[in-house]
Design goal:
This protein is about 20% helix and about 30% strand. The longest helix has about 30 residues.
């Protein structure tokens, strides 16, 4: 605002005294008293009659509220650090101290929306003695400026959300109250706990090999509180969150540099996730084949891909992708890539992304390294010289390597590396499979190493590098693969990384303890804005025990991203006939689940609500949610409980309501309690479906593009008799379809199939309607449906399709005619293939349908 420009000008020209005179005069011109309503067409300010502090001029401690636009207010009080308050929505507020933190002159790598890009919001506000109160209708923010910083209270509908929040800009500390029963979730792929209450979380990325602590590859300064809000610390410098570890009743944030810059999001956990990802980016929409099975190894060599693809196809083990961690010219030729696709319909992905270049075992880029150094594209020392040294990432002995780290903040440097090293493989059809390393914690003396394009040290930018490095790689691949969707596993990360390809929890060891820790880390990622998540099935470090691999594989079937990867043999057939058989069943199930997973994935891309959901996200009212760190939901209604023992025993907590066994082998059971599962077979997993759920499944496929999803099988799970007796129950689900590859969905080339289930005590109604995004696009010209109504205890007295009664299956002689039947207690309705855009199925469960 002009006021600060005046102040700076007066200080520079005539000294501090004159600046105070001019500032006081300027403020006097802007004084209004009373209650204001935000209006973007003019600027108002308010000044309180606060008493002066001894030894200071009278005006130095008076408050001024300066309205900068319709949503933004700046609070000034003498020489205290000013605070800017900006309301993005009725439930999102940005609070920022205006000190001299570094970062204002950098590109905004983290956010995808500026504050001003949000729709207009009406703010009612009033000045108070030492601060101001702002109201949106959904939230109230009260802020006071004191000598030691700002004190803030945030309430919503008269409920206190954040109380006694003190922000001290000079000390770079913020602290707020924690209620006795408050739980805190998020922060990235942390492993120590689901509820971080009582823990200390460092926001600094590390090479967190096999970590079972809060050391992690992705450190996200964002959390969700069980009390109905989320908080994002918009600061990329290393920081520490003390979540009641020092004082049980206080949460403290301590920064090492930069502004004290916060966003507060008000609402239920799903609302908070949606608001946060609207600001920092929604999860990327991946190609459909990314939801098939990926087979990896560290690393396949030469023609290994053909051997693996042949074995998988011969054994009827569905597969879409083989990943090469290390590669050479032979394995990235066009003929190699095309031949594998032609023979086996398998795609090849590769580990392109590397932060370092030079000479190390198996690689010699010495010429490229010299070229990069001469162009000032490498990390430099204090003298501005390229910092080239051994690196333990690529050379454990540190005796056979000499590498330099690329300045990925320089777009010219990234463009040059792609032109020099990676352009030919990409042109040949190579697909990005991983962006590796990038945590920078193995570098020494990072305070004395710098990025030439920024002029900032490696120590200052470790978190930001984890985001920009991966973003730069993916952007360049996208540039060279015009029109295609992003791909690639991203190992390091920061706020905003969720908008890139997919993410795993990184390197693990094949033990049940580490399997559980990585499950917890994956769940925590989904509470930090991520959706496209997975794990290295079987453990990365080595080939693990066969039964452990089978248990991990079963759980991985329900991960958004499914791959087996690591050192040693990780193929399903390398673990014996029994494991191979179980893996085959789970892979067939995985491919049947793709219509459901892909639809949830599109929802995540549109809203930010992840595919895989933690208990606190999906069941926030559940009192025990904060304790359940080893179960998760897939969508609203499927609940998965991985097995962490060879025997297959475990307790499973079911939330309140009626639950069906996913595999249909146990009777429906009531929740709100623990149940015991014992001696679970290798080809089974404790998976439960909530009453009322709608679950679309496709046919078994050997790869995602083998055939159309036709017929579409839809499983509908009856509500409980108690629920339908009380009132009519209903549920909805949308099946999403597009071409699965291009970005043409942005132009409306997609289709949604709306599924609507209604149930009363004596009537079932199910509607199917197809809706085109641009009124022209159709995923298929015609489609058949098979509906499975589970839990129909009452007698069925007749079934209608589109208003006409249809016969039992044994009563019709036409196999393509509509029919219904009973199978194992389920009502099965066959809707023949047609081009109709809408179908309605109805049947009575007590008495015949009315005529």
């Amino acid at each position: 605002m002009v006021l600060l420009h005046w102040q700076r000008a007066m200080i520079s020209s005539s000294g501090l005294l004159r600046s105070r005179v001019w500032v006081t005069a300027a403020l006097a011109l802007l004084v209004f008293v009373g209650i204001g309503r935000a209006n973007p067409t003019y600027v108002t300010a308010q000044m309180s009659s606060a008493p002066s502090v001894p030894g200071k001029p009278d005006g130095s401690t008076k408050l001024a509220v300066q309205q900068e636009d319709g949503r933004t207010f700046k609070l000034l009080r003498g020489e205290f650090v000013p605070v800017r308050v900006t309301f993005l929505t009725k439930r999102t507020v940005h609070i920022q101290t205006l000190s001299n933190g570094r970062g204002a002159d950098l590109p905004d790598y983290i956010r995808v929306k500026s504050d001003r890009s949000y729709a207009r919001v009406t703010i009612n506000w009033e000045a108070r003695e030492s601060g101001a109160a702002f109201k949106t209708g959904d939230m109230t923010v009260e802020l006071d400026l004191e000598r030691d910083g700002a004190t803030i209270q945030v309430t919503s509908f008269q409920t206190g959300l954040i109380t006694n929040w003190n922000i001290n800009a000079e000390r770079q500390i913020a602290a707020l109250d924690l209620r006795p029963d408050e739980h805190i979730y998020g922060f990235g792929d942390k492993r120590a706990a689901l509820d971080q209450r009582g823990h200390r979380v460092e926001i600094i990325n590390r090479d967190a090999f096999a970590s079972e602590t809060n050391e992690s590859y992705k450190s996200i300064p964002f959390y969700i509180s069980s009390k109905g809000y989320g908080l994002f610390f918009n600061n990329f410098y290393p920081s520490v969150f003390d979540i009641g570890a020092t004082s049980r009743s206080r949460l403290q944030v301590r920064a090492t540099a930069g502004d004290m810059d916060f966003y507060v999001f008000v609402g239920e956990p799903k609302d908070v996730i949606s608001q946060y990802t609207e600001l920092t980016g929604r999860p990327a929409l991946l190609p459909r084949w990314a939801f098939g099975y990926h087979q990896g190894k560290a690393s396949y060599r030469r023609r290994d891909a053909f051997t693996v693809a042949n074995e998988m196809r011969k054994r009827k083990l569905p597969l879409d992708v083989i990943y090469y961690d290390g590669w050479d010219r032979e394995t990235t030729t066009k003929s190699f890539i095309d031949t594998l696709w032609t023979q086996y319909n398998v795609r090849l992905t590769y580990g392109f992304g590397m932060p370092m270049f030079g000479k190390y075992p198996g690689n010699d880029d010495s010429t490229l390294l010299q070229d990069l150094g001469s162009r000032r594209y490498l990390m430099v020392d204090r003298n501005g010289l390229p910092s080239v040294a051994p690196d333990p990432h690529v050379d454990v002995s540190e005796e056979q390597s000499a590498v330099g780290y690329l300045d990925y903040f320089s777009s010219s440097a990234v463009e040059h590396v792609f032109d020099a090293k990676w352009n030919d493989p990409i042109r040949n059809g190579a697909i990005l499979g991983m962006v590796d390393f990038g945590e920078l914690d193995h570098l020494r003396n990072t305070e004395s190493k710098f990025w030439p394009s920024l002029g900032m040290s490696v120590a200052q930018t470790r978190n930001l590098y984890g985001l920009v490095y991966a973003q730069s790689i993916i952007d360049q691949v996208q540039k060279r693969h015009s029109g295609r969707r992003p791909t690639g596993m991203v190992r390091p990360g920061f706020a905003g990384t969720q908008r890139l390809g997919w993410s795993t929890t990184g390197d693990s060891v094949p033990t049940y303890r580490n399997f559980r820790a990585h499950t917890r880390a994956m769940i925590n990622l989904t509470l930090s804005g991520f959706s496209n998540v997975g794990q290295d099935i079987g453990g990365w470090d080595r080939k693990g025990p066969d039964i452990l691999y089978a248990r991990w594989f079963a759980a991985g079937t329900f991960h958004p991203f499914m791959w087996s990867h690591g050192q040693g043999d990780h193929e399903p057939y390398s673990h014996g006939a029994q494991v191979e058989s179980a893996a085959r069943e789970f892979l067939e199930l995985r491919y049947r689940l793709i219509p459901y997973l892909y639809s949830l994935h599109e929802l995540a891309h549109r809203t930010g609500i992840p595919v895989l959901r933690a208990f606190p996200l999906q069941e926030p009212a559940e009192q025990l949610a904060y304790r359940i760190d080893d179960q998760y939901f897939v969508g609203d209604h499927i609940m998965v409980a991985p097995l962490f023992t060879d025997r297959g025993d475990r307790k499973v907590y079911l939330p309140k309501g009626l639950w069906y066994d996913f595999f249909g082998e146990e009777m429906p059971t009531s929740g709100g309690r623990d149940i015991q599962r014992r001696s679970t077979a290798l080809n089974r997993l404790p998976v439960y479906v909530r009453a009322g759920a709608i679950l679309p499944l496709g046919p078994v496929m050997q790869h995602t593009g083998e055939k159309p999803v036709d017929p579409l099988s839809i499983h509908i799970y009856s509500f409980s008799a108690e629920d339908t007796k009380a009132s009519k129950q209903n549920n909805r689900f949308q099946v999403y379809d597009d071409d699965g590859m291009s970005n043409e969905y942005r132009d409306g080339k997609f289709e949604r199939t709306n599924l609507h289930f209604e149930q009363t005590s004596d009537l079932i109604k199910f509607e199917i309607s197809r809706e085109s995004g641009n009124r022209r696009y159709q995923s298929t010209a015609s489609r058949a449906y098979t509906l499975y109504f589970h839990g129909m205890d009452a007698t069925v007295h007749g079934v209608r399709l589109d208003g006409k009664t249809i016969p039992r299956a044994h009563e019709t002689k036409k196999p393509t005619a509509p029919s219904w039947d009973l199978a194992d207690g389920d009502v099965v309705v066959s809707v023949p293939r047609s081009s109709r855009r809408k179908h309605v199925v109805e049947f009575a469960t007590i008495s015949p349908l009315p005529r």
